[in-house]
């Protein structure tokens, strides 16, 4: 069996400190999804009368230092891009907001050191309202100071600099080259566009700078680069013996659809354990057991094709078999923390910039060690990692192989800094994609993305409605449970002649109760209602009534048992189905970048063809059109991957729900059949041989257990309209 190269151990680093489970992560400018929809360039363009982006950048000590602004404080750490005039601030830094609304969610701010730049509007809060009153002024209007005013108002007028027109692509000729032009090499000014951040634009415009050393297969598109990362195989990484695949090389079949290079397998996340590091100031964290389950090989492998002799596989591992002759599943278990999942997710986003990865569960700041939250996170992490391994590209990445197969904690700790230092693939990702040549019709691709976008938006709305209805469905099971208990108590009250305190739900009026006889016999039992043996009869020694009373009592107890099944089913089995619906919810946010990249690529393809015809530059535009086809193959393969995932998701959800309902009703039927058998011989005859013993539910007649405890609800999806918010954000809302 072929093996996957295993990564070489990197020297230990300190980057892991950034991903400890106990340190609350602060919002970061380069976090996944943060850049979506933001356009820092537009904000700067709007204010170029004061700040030029040319190579001759004015000093920050310009007359802007004399401009007043509103006092504010940074709420989070923000590491902006200096080349785009974005600030770098720490949480708590004092700021002056020169322009609150600079466009596209940005503000123009100045630090106390005098640096002026852009800052997201949600990363600071104004402190003007919290200033103390000036000395000697206890009442009256607020006194204005030299540095703080309600609104930014320049003290002196300055001659505005001329506005520089900006367009996508090369700038207007005859203009002096600017810093941004040389930096972006003619790319779109909006650096936050998924078409840009994924590297698709750089690929379409320029291809790759490195020479390609491998020729593409016959009938395929462009050639691809081979990974230059050196690798070795060690016995400690058993997962590399179980999965195979070409690192960083991706193939697209006709469809288009991704070609799977690694057989599918499943992953279980289980057995969470809470640990505390030694010392008085030690931190607390939770680890999860992550078990990869590899199913037996296919029939050709079982027949010995490709294997060695004497029951030994080609990779040197013995071929163990089960008693029935089939190979048993192979499992590999590792211990991982939530911060390790963050590392995996971060690296996958960098290495696979143009695929739709599932969202990582939200970080929790309070109550993260409670049993309920730990179990909820375990389920979320299991659903997350299974969606990752189901993607044909993510399944054979080097970082995922190490994440699932590196059984040594020390080895994994040494590998993480290396993976975290991985640079984004950018345009080189598309250079490693093989696809059939000339398999894309641009007009059809344009129609396809419109239909796809409409479909996944409707899927999101439909799943959200289903989730809401399923919550009510679970609650209805509790209503049935309450009815079963009331029916049980009522039956027990009838055969024991003990009043049930909750008479209104039973429909018994006070007038009917006045006819009850409350006299008791010598043994304290209601006179004439129960005989000496506890039978529901006024006759002593009545065997028939004794058998009937005991059978009815067992029926009452069975109804209590059935009520418990309803409660447990709604609390556990149906909760799992309710949680599973999160995996299929909100597909649009995950594919929004894919849709944007697809549409922009279609536009570039059409523009390149029009420009080629107008300028008679056929060979250049043919190359660009071919590169556009590579991007379109990638985006359409992602759409097909979603199509397959959707079919699997909803089929599995429906099957799991039906299996759970069948198992539940089988338990109910089994208990009801047992109760029913008490009325038939020989069980019915046995009931008359001994006196009736009081039921344990008789003592509850005065205070019946009818109300069920509140159902555990699924933790919100990261894209839900009202997700759980970090404590810091919640406090910030109160300022």
Automatic annotation (TrEMBL):
Domain SH3: 67-129
Pfam families, per database record: BAR_3_WASP_bdg, PX
Gene3D superfamilies per the UniProt record, alphabetical: Arfaptin homology (AH) domain/BAR domain (1.20.1270.60), Phox-like domain (3.30.1520.10), SH3 Domains (2.30.30.40)
GO cellular component assignments: cytoplasmic vesicle; plasma membrane
Protein name stated in the entry: PX-domain-containing protein
Organism whose genome encodes this protein: Coniophora puteana (strain RWD-64-598) (Brown rot fungus)
Span list, region Disordered: 137-160, 292-331, 683-714
Keywords: SH3 domain
Signal peptide as annotated in the record: none
PX domain mapped to chain residues: 266-410
Single Gene Ontology BP annotation: endocytosis
Listed GO MF terms: phosphatidylinositol binding
Listed Polar residues bias regions: 321-331
Basic and acidic residues composition bias: residue spans: 695-708
């Amino acid at each position: 069996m072929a093996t996957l190269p295993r990564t070489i151990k990197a020297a230990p680093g300190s980057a892991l400190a950034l991903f400890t489970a106990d340190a609350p992560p602060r919002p970061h400018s380069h976090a996944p999804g943060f850049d979506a929809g933001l356009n820092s360039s537009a904000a700067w363009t709007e204010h170029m009368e004061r700040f030029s982006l040319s190579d001759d950048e004015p000093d920050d000590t310009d007359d802007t230092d004399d401009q007043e602004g509103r006092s504010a404080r940074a709420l989070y750490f923000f590491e902006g891009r200096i080349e785009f005039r974005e600030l770098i601030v720490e949480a708590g830094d004092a700021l002056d907001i020169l322009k609150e609304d600079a466009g596209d969610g940005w503000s123009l701010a100045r630090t106390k050191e005098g640096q002026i730049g852009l800052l997201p509007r949600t990363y600071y809060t104004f402190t003007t309202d919290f200033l103390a009153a000036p000395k000697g002024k206890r009442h009256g209007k607020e006194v204005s100071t030299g540095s703080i005013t309600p609104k930014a108002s320049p003290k002196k007028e300055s001659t505005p600099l001329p506005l520089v027109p900006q367009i996508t692509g090369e700038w207007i000729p005859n203009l002096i080259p600017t810093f941004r032009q040389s930096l972006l090499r003619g790319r779109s000014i909006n650096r936050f566009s998924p078409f840009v951040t994924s590297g698709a634009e750089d690929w379409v415009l320029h291809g790759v700078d490195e020479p390609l050393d491998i020729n593409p297969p016959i009938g395929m598109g462009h050639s691809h680069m081979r990974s230059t990362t050196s690798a070795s195989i060690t016995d400690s990484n058993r997962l590399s013996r179980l999965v195979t695949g070409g690192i960083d090389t991706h193939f697209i079949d006709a469809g288009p659809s991704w070609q799977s290079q690694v057989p599918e397998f499943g992953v279980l996340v289980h057995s969470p354990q809470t640990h505390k590091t030694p010392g008085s100031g030690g931190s607390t964290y939770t680890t999860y057991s992550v078990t990869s389950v590899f199913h037996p090989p296919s029939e050709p492998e079982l027949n010995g094709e490709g294997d060695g002799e004497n029951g030994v596989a080609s990779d040197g591992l013995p071929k163990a078999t089960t008693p029935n002759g089939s190979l048993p599943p192979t499992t590999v278990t590792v211990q991982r923390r939530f911060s390790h999942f963050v590392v995996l997710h971060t690296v996958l986003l960098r290495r696979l910039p143009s695929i739709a990865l599932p969202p990582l569960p939200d970080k929790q700041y309070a109550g993260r060690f409670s049993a309920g939250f730990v179990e909820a996170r375990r389920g979320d992490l299991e659903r997350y990692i299974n969606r990752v391994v189901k993607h044909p590209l993510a399944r054979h990445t080097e970082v995922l192989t190490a994440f699932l197969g590196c059984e040594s904690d020390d080895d994994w700790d040494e590998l993480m800094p290396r993976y975290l230092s991985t640079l984004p693939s950018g345009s080189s990702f598309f250079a490693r994609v093989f696809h059939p040549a000339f398999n894309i019709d641009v007009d059809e691709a344009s129609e396809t993305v419109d239909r796809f976008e409409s479909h996944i938006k409707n899927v999101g709305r439909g799943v959200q409605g289903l989730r809401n209805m399923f919550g009510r469905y679970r609650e209805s099971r509790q209503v049935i449970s309450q009815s079963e208990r009331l029916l049980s108590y009522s039956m027990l009250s009838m055969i024991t002649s003990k009043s049930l305190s909750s008479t209104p739900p039973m429909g018994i009026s006070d007038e009917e109760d006045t006819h009850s006889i409350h006299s008791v016999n010598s043994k304290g039992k209601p006179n004439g209602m129960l005989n000496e043996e506890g039978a529901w009869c006024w006759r002593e020694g009545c065997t028939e009534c004794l058998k009937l009373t005991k059978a009815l009592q067992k029926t009452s107890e069975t109804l209590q048992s059935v009520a418990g099944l309803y409660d447990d089913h709604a609390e556990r089995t149906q909760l799992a189905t309710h949680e599973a619906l999160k995996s299929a919810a909100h597909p649009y946010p995950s594919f929004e970048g894919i849709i944007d990249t697809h549409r922009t690529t279609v536009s570039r393809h059409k523009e390149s063809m029009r420009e080629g015809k107008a300028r008679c530059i056929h060979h250049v535009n043919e190359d660009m059109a071919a590169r556009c086809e590579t991007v379109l193959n990638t985006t359409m393969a992602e759409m097909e991957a979603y199509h397959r995932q959707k079919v699997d998701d909803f089929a599995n959800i429906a099957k799991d729900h039906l299996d759970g309902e069948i198992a539940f009703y089988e338990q109910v039927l089994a208990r009801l059949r047992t109760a029913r058998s008490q009325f038939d011989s020989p069980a019915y005859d046995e009931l008359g041989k001994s006196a009736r013993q009081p039921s344990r539910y008789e003592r509850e007649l005065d205070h019946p257990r009818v109300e069920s405890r509140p159902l555990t609800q699924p933790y919100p999806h990261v894209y839900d309209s009202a997700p759980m918010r970090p404590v810091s954000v919640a406090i910030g809302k109160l300022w």
